[in-house]
Queue: 3 jobs
Job 1
Amino acid sequence: MTVSPLLTVKDLSVAFGPERAPIPVVENVSFSVRRGETLALVGESGSGKTLTGKSLLGILPKGARITSGSAVLDDNLGRVDLLSIPLKELRKIRGGRVSMIFQEPMSSLSSLHTIGNQVMEAVLLHNECSGGDAKNRCLETFQNVGFPDPERAFRAYPFELSGGLRQRAMIAMAMVCKPRLMIADEPTTALDVTTQATVLELIKQLQRDNGMSVIMVTHDLGVVANMADNVVVLRKGKVVESGPARPVLMTPGHGYTRKLINAAPEIPENLDARSEPSEDFILHATNLSKTYPGKPVGLGKMSDPVKAVQDVRIELRRGETLAVVGESGSGKSTVAKLMLQAERPDPGASVMFTGQDGKEIDVAALSGSELIKFRRKVQIVFQDPFASLSPRMNVCDILTEPLRVHNIGTGREQRDRAADLMERVGLSADHLQRFPHAFSGGQRQRISIARALALGPELIVCDEPTSALDVSVQAQVLELFKELRDDFNLSYLFISHDLAVVADLADRVAVMWRGRVVEEGPVKALFNNPVHPYTKALMAASPEPDMEKPLDLAAVALGAGEPQSWVEPFGYQGDDAPGLIEVEAGHFVRRAA
Amino acid sequence: MLTYILRRSITMAWTLLAISVLIFAIINLPDGNYLTNQIRELMVTGEEASIAKAKFLLQQYSLDKPLVEQYAIWLGVWPGPNGFSGILQGDFGYSFELDRPVSDIVTESMWFTIGLNLVVVLFVYMTALPLGALAAVRANTWIDYLTSLIGYLGLATPNFLLALVLMYYGNKAVGLPIGGGMAKEFLDEPMSFAKFGSIMLHMIAPVIVIGTAGMAGMTRRLRANLMDELSKPYVTTAEAKGVSPTRTVVKYPLRMALNPFIADIGNLLPQLVSGSVLVSVVMSLPTIGPILLSALRSQDIFLSGFILLFVSALTLVGMLISDLLLAVVDPRIRLAGKSGNQR
């Protein structure tokens, strides 16, 4: 006997635009979710995966509407078609029988109301109970989702919590009414990898305890491999492949699925050192620290100063790539700013830059015209290609601006250079007159890279240049970085939060944790023989699209906690960290001798 | 919270002191003052007795002393001919033009001004809040267009014109009183229920006239803010929780959009005081505005100085109130720096 599925979606279509000329964004999507199972809706941006999830609860954004289809929910309370019942009835189901969690835990929670207030609201809406009972249920749920102090979480405001705890609060809000189905829309995308691993595990465990079904909307095949029983792959609003997770991921039938799996960054098994260690340093920084003074709190009192970067050493050889990897708050972006003289390091630091002409420059002492000259040699590529290009300038203006600022060449030469650059980054020179909004995210990032190349720099600082891009685009952009490095003999300081992204590009990797480098070494040594528990945790926490390699939560737990909890000889004594010790040639680890 | 209020009050005191210096300097910028002008005039006609009186007053109020000393005496931190007697001691000086102490002249109109402005602020907020919220939630429907129309009319119509129109038709249609702060028979009466009622009745027209422009601007700002907030993810979260639409809007985005709304109180007050001068003249309201105007024209320095100081104090108090309200409404401001981000 077959049990009917919890949710059966048939021929769901969603469209934008006017009634007469609808623009379809989801077309004839069908799938079903069985009790206690997890279904993953996978796709890149614009695939319609989020709209599919939202349409089930009738919370589509303005302008979007459901044009056809049914979604029958069949639980112990009866059968209903979520797409056709009146809004008033649907409202009773939202948050009660079907709940949803969102990507950005910060902006998805109101910062003017306490966590308790917002979670309790769901209880009071869907249950007839007193305030006291509701509060007890909240506290119980907080306990279940792993809040160390439920009472305190109840009174806290979202901005008082860390990202991981905020997402736990979101999950608590979705769980508190014991829903039969939870729709999770990229629940871990905004989180650090180690946090992501624990949150994914939490969802799994809650699912085991309550027998709830989950629809996981995600772009990350690694997450899919770890969570899903069934997979639906979406592309431009259409289902291209669906079925049980194992066959879809292991032996994908559709080319697009294969492409997605291949593009997912993976830590390679075998790595070769690309270059022989030379002594030709383009950038050599020692004793690098940055302390931000505390803010005044109350009368005459100051909060503790923030030590964003402590005693970091950067050695970047010419033509090499140094990757600085760390989670949010690790100080990696501050290091980048210090290199560019966008911030001044604390006294005692030395930042030496050696140009191709062999002259050594003390970057920290530069000012005025010297600094401007230095900036021609060092350029930056930013994370967000949507925010870092002015929407009011066309591409030609964007690419010639650095040349105009530095007064290089005539107008005609500048335009020719812009055309060259466009070709070089894989775009057509015919598009120079277009404005940034006419390009996709990946193309915009190519334009950012072309702009950085305009002045013929020797060093490019890349601040998370691919983290806002889809995986397939990310792979192409990383490939472009590699080509350019070899063609122009560029050196990169590559900032990233993702070890897998840098594995293929970097020569050396420095892993940072709260302002300190905990492990640094050649890429081969670091990936094949990670020593520090935090590095191991980072590697274990990054989910891979391989059913055979599930997340190793034990390793994550060992390294992701406070440094005092790290096993000997790695633990800190209070705020005092042990020194960096060379464990093998060029491979340094922060540990007691 | 207590330290916050204390700290704010101290800053406020310093600001007020700085403003007093500025005011005193500015009212003394034009050559001479009411008395010296009068003496010059009297010289021509040669009325010895009057000249002697004016000169006596000049001495009495130390207007022959250097400016810095004059200021210190005016403030009450320096002994004048009558010992320490200045603003700090509650002696606001003497109006030479009206030949009465400043406190006598302004007391009544000061209270009327404060009262009128309070009612206007209440009116502005009570109308702008629902109108702005409705306009945002029902954006691009007839409700939105209607509030926009009212708003544009309010912004674009000159106040005195609106005052005349409202007085005429208000009186014709429902018998609203024309002009004045209260009915004549209550003028020098002690406060009573009937007098209060009369004042209220007389306030209706002025409040609408003075408040319309502020209300219109406020409605537009609230609409814009709220529309921004309505598309934020936390609104979707509330919807996904099953909260009803009205409750969603009122509890979440509306509260978020209130911040600039509250912060405007401080800005609103001085605008109302200076903006209502013309209206006060047209509607013959006993507010402080017309008195200030005539005092400035005749260089009656103590009177104008005090009124300017009073308006500044009103603004500062308004800003203090809006800051305190903000801290009450918004935990991010209340808790900022206290606990920081707990990671």
Note: Chain A touches chain B at residues 54, 57, 59, 61-62, 91-96, 99-100, 102-104, 107-114, 121-122, 125-126, 157, 159-162, 170, 173, 295-299, 303, 329 (CB under 8 Å).
Job 2
Amino acid sequence: MPISIKMPSLSPTMTEGKLAKWLKKKGDQVLPGDIIAEIETDKATMEIEAVDEGVLFEIKVDEGAENVLVGSTIATIMEENDSENDMMDLEGNGNIEGENNLVSIENKNKNLEFNEKKVTSDLSLDKTSSENRIRISPLAKRLALKNNISYREIKGSGPYGRIVKKDIENYDNLKETFDNNLNNKIDLKKNNFSDVPLSPMRKVIAQRLINSVNEAPHFFLSVDCNISEINKIRNQINSDNLKISVNDFIVKASAKALKNVPKANCSWNDNFIRYYNNFDISVAVAIDDGLITPIVRNAESKGLGEISKEIKDLVDKAKKGNLTPEEYQGGNFTVSNLGMYGIKNFTAIINPPQSMILAIGKAEKKPLIINNEIQISEIMSVTLSCDHRVVDGALGSVWLNKFKSYIENPSLMLI
Amino acid sequence: MRKFDLVVLGGGPGGYVAAIRAKQLGLNVLLLESNELGGVCLNWGCIPTKALLKVSEFKNNINKFKDFGIEVSGEISFNIKKVIQRSRNVSKQLSNGVKHLLKKNNVEVIKGFGSIQDIKEEVILNVSQGEGSNIKIGSKHLIIATGAKPRLIPGVDTKNDNIWTAKDAMVPKSIPKSITIIGSGAIGIEFASFYNDMGSKVTVVEMENSILPNEDQEVSETAKNIFSKRGINFLNNSSLVSVDTSKNNIISKIETNNKIIDLVSEKLLLAIGITGNIENLGLEKSNIEIKNGHIITDDKMRTNVKNIYAIGDVTQPPWLAHKASHEAMIASEVIAGLNNVHSLDKSAIPSCTYSYPQIASIGLNEQQAKDNGFKIKVGTFPFLGNGKSITMGVSDGFIKTIFNHETGELIGAHMIGSEVTELINSFSIAKQLETTEKDIINTVFAHPTLSEALHESVLAAYNRAIHF
């Protein structure tokens, strides 16, 4: 029976997506586990994997096609016993078996890179994930695991690209040479570099940020916020069981400020400006080989305890690579905090299609003159990046002052 | 002048394989052989000796008839003429087979001796076809596969009927009453085993302090014990100083334990190795790099001169037919421009001695492994613990495996016993596929088979042997 491959839904809210790339051509033999195509969402590249064996009979959606509706047929596979007539029938009535059985989707960004880490840390986890079809000899694999080499990055020199001992040794030598040269002087005559293939996440980050910088005219507004009041409240709230961070206040204050300045809660589109009615705050989280921005939904209406717990969960999931697409796709506004790295202040690149991002620096104790008296206060410098197409200087300033007033008078957030 | 993509000099197990492979890849190829197709291996080496050694195996089996309840009356005797004739027929059959294979693959063969005359854009060869008849041939590429000949000792004249090289030992007119063999490598030991079984009084002289000096120490010692019990004499740390041919028997002056002794025997066999056939090939003109009588190549069989390749015994050791054939394929594939031609891993070439019992090995022996600084795991399993061996009545010997303790890599395997030259290939595959101890341990071996001993020796390396 002919099999129809449909555009998968990668999250409950997804209605359409982009067909990034066909990895099989019309007429190609397809085996279970073969990657047929790549689907792109705004944050990740997903792979469509064949579940059944057959021949790729027809490709219905061109490579690069955007706005492909979820559930629409993108290709058909002819099984061994199928005739061309069967295939015509399929096209006629569109009577297709349940799609979930036919296509399994894999979120490459999300899982694979991080599964790798798990395998690396545990020798007993010896399953080669067949979905990934890495060909590697048992010895090469053991050497890679022993030396903490991510063998997925290595091009195998054995039959059918099989990774063999020599490849691991060469890779190791290369790395060693590289490390040695970093420590010593750089010898220009030799190739003192190693080329590591781009991870899907790295590609997505590069693409999105290039778009953001090229398309959104950025401008920056900075202000100092006194967080002494926040710290007082934190001292009252925090116990062994509950730890509210300054960042939790920042997320809450950002959402509240957005609600108060609704004109700033928007995004640029070619023919219109979209204003949002929800106040979802993306939080930038650094993970190995990149960053990801999980979302605290409706942060304006959530309690600090709830926000705190949610962020902890999301960060934990992000580090383990367990975030689901709906946990990081969307969001109205992003908070990026480099305070823990001792950064005084910095400017951030807007996370499209959002229109603002807030860069948080390290809080420092400073003398402050209040009522003609010198007081020691804790000051945190924040910088707002705005997309000038939709947020002008005045609007950005209004929003930033609102934010500042929430931070300096945290009891206002209770209202 | 006729022109080719590739000319192969020599039609042995290196040359004819190179020619066929090149033809398969669409090259216009010519094979030049001045003697017999099949080379030393087929005509005067591996094959005819195996035919002789089968006779010696029969003899040993007949000796066991009583144990198995087979009763034969009358005396066992050998018709040496027929023994030799069969061995020659086998060679001839296989040599004809090579001729047929070349024909089937449409490889043109010219009988003649090729030498390099000039190297310009292409290699110009002079082919001498005897009686002053010469032709010139041009070729884009050249593979030198001229093989090797026995290494001789200065002052020891092998033209003397009683002083043999391996070739003479393959076609004796009669079985000598006694024979002294210089050298205890594979060739020396195979002839020692054969002539001992044929009833000769055999003495083996070896410079090193163990016989089969390339093998693992334990294998060498076991072999020496078994052969000694069967009547072969060994003189280790000994070397041939001179030969007295003035009497009916050969008197070999042997230096051993700082003194010179006389070994008197009907025949003297030189089996101290081989030296490459590099003479009269015009190599001097082309400045091809040579070391110790053998051509130097890289791991893709390229010499230092562009478009000239060398394979097999004329190159560096090990000198084995299967190495030559393998190198042949590499060279032809490189010449045909294939991508990703694999390189020969010299640590993964098995070597076999077809004596009785047989000896086979691959990779490093225990001493070499230690010298290389590996932390190792060693397992040994005797055939005494193997059911099939007991049923066959051949429980001498053992299998020994050496693993890298840190990575589980199979560093070497060494065996002595019945049919081990067949068993070794399992480890060749294991090494090529880069299996670890775990993969071999997890493999199901059929019961009852000799191969189970492979499994057990690996288990033994990890202190898990079940049957011993």
Note: Confidence is low (pLDDT under 50) at residues 91-131, 185-189 of chain A.
Job 3
Amino acid sequence: MEILRFTTAGSVDDGKSTLIGRLLYDSKSIFEDQLDQVSETSKRKGLEHVDLSLLTDGLRAEREQGITIDVAYRYFATPKRKFIIADTPGHIQYTRNMVTGASTANLALILIDARKGLVEQTHRHAIIASLLQIPHMIVCVNKMDLVDYDEAIFEKIQEEFKEFAAKLNLKDIRFVPISALKGDNVVNRSEKTSWYSGETLLHTLENIYISSDNNYIDPRFAVQTIIRPHSDKFHDFRGYAGRISSGVFRKGDDIVALPSGFTSRIKSIFNGMEEVDEAFPPQSVTITLEDDIDISRGDMLVRPDNQPQQTQDLDVMLCWMDEQPPRPRAKYILKHTTNEARCMIKDIKYKMNINTLSRIEGDKTLHMNDIARVQLRTTKAMLWDPYKSNRITGSLILVDEATNNTVAAGMIRRNK
Amino acid sequence: MSNYQLSHLDELEAEAIYVLREVFSQFQNPALLFSGGKDSITVAHLAKKAFYPAKIPFTFLHVDTGHNFPETIKFRDDLIEELGVRLAVGSVQDAIDDGRVMEETGANASRNKLQITALLDTIEDENFDVAIGGGRRDEEKARAKERFFSHRDEFGQWDPKHQRPELWNLFNGKYNPGEHFRAFPISNWTEFDVWQYIMRENIEIPSLYLAHERDVIWRDNTWLPMSEHIVLRDGEKVEKKKIRFRTLGDITITGGIESDADTIEKVVEEVSAMRQTERGNRSDDKRSETSMEDRKKEGYF
């Protein structure tokens, strides 16, 4: 059984909570006491139906205001897969939360109301999924029951979405006509959409091929910490602990440590207490080398014939996440893999209209939820790959030195 | 490429180990909150793997309500010795004796909330800058919003509405003097994942989790274990039942369920068919719909 992480986004009335509620309920992931509590609260609020959004909206303020403030993580499993849902709100702070939810997702689930077709929010979700390079997308055309399960409506929405998506970088898009409320094509095939030959939503989630979502081509290992037991049994043991970002590392491989450039060979690889012959993403392992070379946290082990970029200037798509805009000439702590440097925003090239994909030129300000292409200058050379080919070594966050807040998230673009 | 696919338990394990190593690297003086319950035992096991062949570089911190299952304390002491780590105890009884907190009175009195003071005082006294917990997002709706690295202000408070965004696997553990963090390596695990992992890894757990004969009373819709701290109310009687516990906490408020599952294999089977959340047997969570959020804001685990 493997894990599929997916993100959902949507507003109050597009049926997102109902859909999540149904996936949880039909996969028996909602417990009776949780359901009892939600039913009771729904009744107290004077609602006629059981409001399944109360399952995900956990904070007092959310329940009082009937809105989702923050990303909520939900879990369910079928005999085939374990699912982690990053459920993100569709309204306030939408970009910030959607970017957060999308950063770890294999798949984006987009809901479209069959009566309304594509709306601004649909574009926004698709653009963010594309920016964050989520490998797969399922577009659910929901509320099919309210349009008499009309094939023509489903086809039209599908065509419109494909036309819009052609401008984006989305590789794998699937469409499913559903009714979250009635359960059509969610877990069970609907008899009312006999014209639809595709799979149900759950079947797609269970079977979509995700094994190639990781990068197995470019070996990258960012060192987290050094393990030196100082015990009699492991007197000379010096292990480099970290998580494989990408590629495969094998015992006996020639490696080069960056930024020093010293070379050596892999002597052993430990996965927990067990010695293994090879390691691949996203395993956490400890690597020992044949030679005693100077390596510390933030350094990277790579193969001599396949190395990352090393530059102090970074071309980045940046999402601003803080209530305060950047202060003039402010320095930020840049966190990238296990490495850290100070940096400044040298230039804001253009901002992006996240609803239309068009560029806003000349506006040099950054506000919360803005996405902009910026030039960063760091105090030392960073070891990076383009986000497009490596989501781990191509991503970064900025931390404000004054408040310690995480103020921005960035994706490094390919060099021109 | 198919042989490079990790199972869900392997992926969760890799994630938790990564988080534990980040904690070690980003903080000066980490504590691992150890209650003797299955979640903290799992975290201890993961920490052992994360730093092998070195010892676990964390002090274990037990917040002791004074209302313990004797089995839990014995288990704790044995594990501490086996791992060779240091144990710090934050004692609720001491906090009461010192006059830092007042024992609750009334029908539903418990020492649950008093743990907050014992925990925060110990964090301050020992200068811990991070406390690693076994909290999981599936446990409770307020916990579903929790970060892997969760900031606490100088009063130990959690501000759920102004949390730092957490993206990819980049964790921000920066803090000002007096503040601290909570870290949750098994955030993405469910109760079922924990049980499956315990079974797979053959991790030793207190016998209380397996079905056993015990003197219990029926109170608040659960089988409460009889102990020196329990005062019988009208109509209550002590019965002998075969029960097991799904969570281990304060003995006065942790209820058991009737069960025949006396091996880990049977427990895993039983959990997979379970229709009630594990905290449904904890009266501390039944006080109000947001009782967990309220306690967490003040500094609870």
Note: The CA atoms of residues 26 and 153 of chain A lie 27 Å apart.
